Amino acid sequence: DILREWLANYPFQLKSVFSSPADVAEIESLVAETGLVIPPSKILLMPEGTDPARIDSRRAELVDFCLKKGFRLCDRLHIRLFGNTRGT
C-alpha cells in the first residue's frame, strides 16, 4: 500500500540491482502487484558486483534485458570510483 501511494503521488524511478534473470521477474511481479501502469523507462537496473570486473561481467546480459523490456541501464559508478566502501 505504501509503495502504491508513493508511485501514484510522487515523481519516481525504481532502481534495482540485477544479479540474475529471476530479479527481472521479481521486479515485474512487484510492479504488477501495484496495479499501476509504470512505464518501463521508470525502471533502472544496475549490475550486481563489488568490483568493476564483476559489474562488467554482468553488463552484457543486463543490456539484453533492458533492451527487450524497455528498462534503463545504470552503472555502479560509486564502486568504480571508491571501491566497495560504505557511505559512497
Summarize the structure.
With 88 residues, the protein is α/β, with parallel strands linked by helices.
Structural write-up:
The radius of gyration is 14 Å and the shape is globular. Strands 1-2-3 form a 3-stranded parallel beta sheet. The chain has 88 residues and is α/β, with parallel strands linked by helices. β1, α2 and β2 (43-47) form a beta-alpha-beta unit. The longest helix is centred in the last third of the chain and has 18 residues, at 52-69. The protein has 4 helices and 3 strands.
Defining traits:
88 residues; alpha/beta; 4 helices; 3 strands; globular
Which SSEs are present, and which pair or pack?
Elements: H1 2-9, E1 14-18, H2 21-34, E2 43-47, H3 52-69, E3 72-73, H4 77-82
Parallel strand pairs: 1-2, 2-3
Strand content: 5-15%
* Count of beta strands: 3
- How is the largest sheet built, in terms of strand order? 1-2-3
Average pLDDT figure: 92
Q: Count of helices? A: 4
Largest sheet: 3 strands, parallel
Query: What are the secondary-structure elements, in order, as H or E?
Result: HEHEHEH
Class derived from helix and strand content: alpha/beta
Radius of gyration, CA atoms, in whole angstroms: 14 Å
The global form is globular
Termini Cα gap: 30 Å
Low-confidence stretches: none
Helix content: 40-55%
